[in-house]
Specification:
This protein is an all-alpha fold and about 150 residues long. About 75% of the residues lie in helices and about 0% in strands. It has 8 helices and no strands. Helix 3 packs antiparallel against helix 4, helix 3 crosses helix 6 and helix 5 runs antiparallel to helix 6. The model has no long low-confidence stretch (mean pLDDT about 85).
């Protein structure tokens, strides 16, 4: 709980009605020092969404809206994830690929982790994130995995 409340405090430029940082300075510090980079935001969403969705949404939304460069990072990250998923599809869709059961299990757990993290992040992030998710073909690639 203390870690979560610390994340909430750092995710906002103001401490109370009298004490606050300049919003631009706060956003620059968070981004430049990688206090909250995109992977950390995704982890925060994945770890805390189920137990506290409202506060998780406040954390993720505040940081995404405070530093718009995170939207560019998201676009790049989704492209990388799409590439990884696209590599897995042909490898495991061919019954004669020779994949061992352990490989299948690891690949499925990896895809499950990706899907779960992205689902929590999409729910916690501002509405603008939905258009980024829909602009690429990651959802098509994940649907293709589901069909195979």
């Amino acid at each position: 709980r203390r870690v979560f409340m610390t994340l909430l405090r750092v995710a906002q430029p103001r401490e109370d009605g009298k004490h606050f940082m300049d919003t631009d300075f706060w956003a620059k510090v968070l981004y430049d020092r990688k206090i909250f980079d995109l992977p950390k935001l995704m982890d925060v969403a994945a770890v805390f969404w189920e137990s506290s969705p409202d506060v998780t949404e406040r954390i993720v939304s505040s940081i995404m809206e405070g530093q718009p460069q995170h939207y560019d990072s998201l676009t790049q990250a989704l492209g990388l994830i799409e590439g990884v998923v696209a590599e897995l599809i042909p490898r495991f869709s061919d019954p004669e690929c020779g994949a061992e059961p352990q490989e299948w299990q690891e690949a499925l757990l990896y895809l499950l982790d990706i899907a779960g993290t992205l689902a929590c992040f999409a729910r916690a992030a501002p509405a603008r994130v939905a258009s980024i998710f829909l602009s690429g073909s990651l959802l098509d690639a994940l649907a293709c995995v589901h069909e195979t």
